[in-house]
Amino acid sequence: MAEVNPTLTLASERRTQSFEERRASFQRLFFMGCFAWPPFAVLDVLGAEIWHHQRAIPALLSVRVVGEVLAVTLYAAVRWGNLTPRALTVLDYVAWVLNATRGYAVKIVNPGGVELWKRNVREIKTLDDPVGDARVTPRRILETLTDAANALKLPHPVHIHCNNLGLPGNIAMTLDSMRAVEGRRAHFTHLQFQSYGAPWHSEAKQIAEYFATHPEVSGDVGQVMFGAATTLTADGAVEYMLHKSSGKKWVNADIELETGCGIVPYVYKDTAAVAALQWVVGLELFLLSPDPWRMVLSTDHPNGGSFMSYPELIHLLMDRTYRDARLKTINQKYLAGSALADGLAREYTLGEIAIITRAGPARQLGLANKGHLGVGADADVTVYAREADISHMFATPRYVVKAGALVVEEGQLRRAPRGARHSVAPGYDAAVERDLKAYFDKYSTVAFENYAVAAPS
Ligand SMILES: [Zn+2]
User: For the chain, what is the domain count?
Assistant: First the structure.
């Protein structure tokens, strides 16, 4: 299998970034020091006047100035010393994990929530809920990893699966999470599962509004499609909830106390009130979001539905008549006041479909050779014959060309070439391995030396 391995930041570049942080911090302290002394100086002068020691004023003021300079310098020196190792350690740790796991991006799943769930806390109330230690909170996890992914200049920004997925009223937590990393590049995944009001109703409009004013964020919808699905996630809390609510069998595995990966089979029925609302929320995210480059198509395969249902999803987006007819047949209990129920005229053009399924995801993933037909692209081309039945047209491409090789011809699969495996290998300071080895020795059943995934031969 081919290995795609973009060259990334070196330790020296990260040291510069850390130096910048220190310089900015020092500057802030300096200005604080400058503006802190006048009130004390006024008190010195007033005191001297009241007790008739005017001759002491120059000496008092000199002591005050020297004291201020000493205090600011000492405090800044301590902060300077603290800042460097911490900033470097986080970056080194993230870079090391990406190398060891041959990962491509950082995904944050239910930050802090899975750990709390294992301690019998079912729902995170705020981003500032402590996770065991008061210094660790969902907010700190989001900030730290978002900054680390951006500082390492990873091709895909941090990929965030917010807290309280699937729960009514989770829109507040979703928007708080977005604001927590405001101004920084971040991708929010399967947003449909994160856009509910309480009691159950759609809040997709609020997400679309946030996206309209924040060009730094991207997202994917995670559309629910009616029929059988397999829920499969590292969000152990969600799997337990689905197991309890559906009565379906639940498998959960905890790997080295880092997370819990669970599986629960599931069926989204159009007669079920919540599933019908989920279907509507997803379509609203597509139809209300202003920029198809930043709100791309997904069913969170296989969680909201299989990728086999993409043709029908595209049909729903391109054809209002088809969509409105389907809307009438589903459970209406929680749909009152939703934008889709009130009527949404938007129909996606073929160009917009190409963006939400190809060009947009390629751009969000930082894959320069994918999602376009320009010079240097990978020659991945799908050719459809125009048909009135959009679902059928997208389910039966006439030709599929993958990296220049013909894969599908007249609806027949000719060959199944293997794709490339993508990973990143950012540089890190090897000193971090000493601390990690100590951690593994203390807490892990896997030896540090056995943890990393071997390079493909
Ligand atoms: Zn997820």
Answer: 2
Give me ligand 1 centre to Cα 412, in Å: 33
Domain that holds residue 88: 1-103+423-457
Q: Quick one: which H or E segment has residue 88?
A: helix 57-101
CA 208 – ligand 1 centroid, Å: 20
CA of 281 to the centre of ligand 1 (A): 17
pTM given for the model? 0.81
Spatial separation of the C-alpha atoms in residues 44 and 196, rounded to whole Å? 59
**Residues 249, 264: contact at Cβ < 8 Å?**
yes
Do 137 and 252 share a structural domain? Answer: yes
Structure tokens at 280: 């509507």
248-299 confidence digits (pLDDT tens): 998 888 766 566 788 999 999 999 999 999 999 999 999 999 999 999 999 9
Ligand 1: centre distance to CA 63 (Å): 59
Q: Are residues 357 and 427 in the same domain?
A: no
Domain match, 95 and 120 both: no
Please work out, in degrees rounded to the nearest 5, the angle formed at the alpha carbon of residue 400 by the alpha carbons of 398 and 403.
160
